[in-house]
Amino acid sequence: MQGVEPALAKSALRKELRAARRAHVAALDPRIRALTFLRPPSPLIAMVPADAVIGLYHAGPDEAPAGAYARYFHDAGHAVALPWFAAREAAMEFRLWRSPHLEELLEPGPFGILQPVADAAVAMPTFLLLPLVGFTAEGRRLGQGGGHYDRWLAANSGVPAVGMAWDCQKVETLPDEAHDQPLTAVVTPTRLYGPFQTGQ
Question: Is residue 199 part of a domain?
Fold first, then answer.
C-alpha cells in the first residue's frame, strides 16, 4: 500500500485483517479455543507491579478473549477496570469491574459492548491490556479506528500497554500516523513480543 494515504491504507487493512481473524477463530477447535489466554505467561506477569490497577476489555466475538486474564489478576489481588463510555462521542474512561467472575456487574454501553454499570467507581489503570486488529513484531498497533486507546495513552503516558491478539493478526508493517501510540508488548497464544523500549 505504498503511496496510499495512511488513513485509507489502515481502513483497507482493517477489513482484510478482520476477515482473517474471523476465519481463524471460526476454524479453531472449540476445545483448543477454550484453552487459549487462560493465564498470562510468566514474563508478562513479571512486568506487572504488585499494586497495579489492571485495565482490560470485554472482548468481542473474534477478539482475543480477556476474561480469564481479568479473573487471574483479580484473584491475584489486583483491581480490574474496563473501558466505560457515557455516550458514543464521550472520551473513554475506566471503571472498576468489582468481580470479573460476575457479568451481572456489566451492562451494554453506547457501542453495544459490555461495560461496568453506571455507578461503578472510576479507576485509573496503571497497567493496560488492550485489543487490536493488527500488530507488528516491533509493537505497532492497528486499532478499531475510533482512536479511543490512542487518545487515552497519549493523555496517560508512562502506562505500559500490552496488546492481546491471535497470531494471525501479526503483519510486517503498518501505516504510521502521528497520533499512533506504540505498545509495550503483545501477547498471543504462542508467544510474548517485547517488551519494547518505545512503549515504556
Answer: no
Copy the grid coordinates of residue 170. 501479526
pLDDT tens for each residue of 37-81 = 999 999 999 999 999 999 999 999 899 999 999 999 999 999 999
Secondary structure element (H or E) that encloses residue 72, with its range:
helix 67-75
* CA nearest neighbour of 67 among 105, 124, 29: 105
Cα–Cα nearest to 80, from 110, 114, 116, 109: 116
Number of domains making up the chain: 1
Say if CB 135 and CB 170 are below 8 A apart: yes
pTM above 0.85, yes or no: yes
CA distance 139 to 161: 10
- 55 in helix, strand or coil? strand
Residues spanned by the domain of 63: 6-193
